[in-house]
Amino acid sequence: MRPVTLHTDRLELSVPTAGDVDAIFAACQDPEVQRYTTVPSPYRREHAEGFVEKAAAWWEAGTETTWAVRRDGVLSGMVGLHRLGRGDGELGYWMTAAARGQGLLTEAARAVVDWGFSSDGLGLARIEWRAVTGNIPSARAARALGFRYEGLLRQALLHSTGRRDDAWIAGLLPADDRTPQEWTVLSA
What's the rounded Cα separation, in Å, for the pair 124 and 121? Predict the structure, then answer.
C-alpha cells in the first residue's frame, strides 16, 4: 500500500521520515509516552531510527498505517491504524507534551478514523481503541471521537519491558453515531 498524506485545518499527517528522528527521540523521553505506549524504555536514538524504517515497511506491507502529526512543520505526535488485515484495525496515538491540550490529537485521529472507514481509504468494518487502564487523557480522546467503551481486558497489553497491563477497550463502527457516549471509567 502506498502512504497517504492527510490534511486537517491545522495539521498534516504524513509518513514519518529520517528528518523526524530527533523529534521522535525527544518526544519518547517523556515518561507519559513510555508509560502508556509500547515504545522501548529506555528509549534510544536508534529506536527512533528503526521506527521510521518500520513505519515505511508497514505501509508497504499493508499491516499498519502510521502518520507523523505535524503542525506548522513541527512534529506533534504519531497516530496510526494497527493490526490491519482482517477488515478491522486498532487506533493508536501519542502526542508530544507541548502539543497536548490543544485538540490536536482528536483532530488528527478523526482524520485517520474517517480515512480508515472510507471506501477511498481502507473501508474498515470496525476500529478498536485500547489503552492501559488509568490513561484518562487517551480515553477522553477516544470518547470524543465517538468510540463506545466495551470493557476491561485483563493483562492484555505487553509493554516492551515485559510488564503486562490491564487494558480498556472501545470500538467504533462506520454507522455509529459519533456523539460522545457515557463511559463508566470516565464517570468514576
Answer: 8
Phi and psi of 18, rounded to 5°?
A: -60, -30
The helix or strand, by DSSP H or E, that contains position 186, with its residue range, turns out to be helix 184-187
CA 16 and chain centroid, separation = 14
Contact 144, 112 (CB under 8 A): no
> Which domains, from first to last, does the chain contain?
6-187 (3.40.630.30)
Can the peptide bond before residue 42 be classed as cis, meaning omega within 30 degrees of 0? yes
| Cα–Cα dist 130/109, whole Å | 14
CA–CA separation, 116 and 32 (whole Å): 27
pLDDT digits (tens, 9 = 90+) for 90-128: 999 999 999 999 999 999 999 999 999 999 999 999 999
* C-alpha torsion sign, points 135, 176, 89, 29: negative
Q: Please name the helix (run of DSSP H) or strand (run of DSSP E) that holds residue 153, with its range, or none.
A: strand 148-158
pTM: 0.95
Q: What is the pLDDT of residue 161?
A: 79
